[in-house]
Amino acid sequence: MDSFKGQGGIQMLLTAEQEAQHIVSSARNMKMARLKQAKDEAEKEVALYRSQMEAEYQNKISESTGSSGSTVKKLEDETDRKIKALTKSTSMVSKEIVDILMKHITSVKI
């Protein structure tokens, strides 16, 4: 009878050990699933953040490019106005300058 109790005790221990292994295995699988889920969530957050930063960067580039294009246009307009003003003022005094030069060239001091 004692051997039967011993056999039953051993069988209970084996059953308890298998049950414990199942519990540990299940907990390990749940932990791995949670780690994978956390990794996926983190990757999504990183991708979202990266896309936001890229969009902000592209906006800044387009703003600076747009403003430099308008700056170039303003400079070209200002240069054209100055050239026209200089051409106009030169044409107004060119006759006088030619007369002064001719007077100095043709007059000889003795």
From TrEMBL:
Keywords, sorted A to Z: Coiled coil, Hydrogen ion transport, Ion transport, Transport
Top-level lineage group: Eukaryota
The keyword Transport is assigned to this record: yes
rRNA processing is among the record's keywords: no
TM stretches of this protein: none
Family matches, as InterPro entries: V-ATPase_G
Stretches of the chain forming a coiled coil according to its record: 32-59
A Pfam family hit: V-ATPase_G
Subunit structure: V-ATPase is a heteromultimeric enzyme made up of two complexes: the ATP-hydrolytic V1 complex and the proton translocation V0 complex.
UniProt record similarity statement: Belongs to the V-ATPase G subunit family.
Function of the molecule: Catalytic subunit of the peripheral V1 complex of vacuolar ATPase (V-ATPase). V-ATPase is responsible for acidifying a variety of intracellular compartments in eukaryotic cells.
UniProt cross-references to PANTHER family, sorted A to Z: V-TYPE PROTON ATPASE SUBUNIT G3 (PTHR12713:SF27), VACUOLAR ATP SYNTHASE SUBUNIT G (PTHR12713)
Name of the protein this chain belongs to: V-type proton ATPase subunit G
